[in-house]
Amino acid sequence: MQNINNVLVDADAYPVKDEIVQVGTEFHVEIVFVASYTHRSRKQQGNWIYVDSGQDEVDLYLSTCKGNRSHDHTVYEAC
Q: How far is Cα 59 from Cα 77, in angstroms, rounded to an integer?
């Protein structure tokens, strides 16, 4: 089984951020939320990366980043 070091989360309008942070803490996995600048919040747990607010910018970032970081796993918005 492959070790998971990081989980990248599409955080634009993702309602379970607190739960993801809690599970990441429990399993000693770094959580990295990726969101557009328009979804910035004062309440932020975990690590955040912000991208431009254009359509699909978060998805483009995650698909590009996934190929460059071998131990990252991605959680996309469930819709």
A: 10
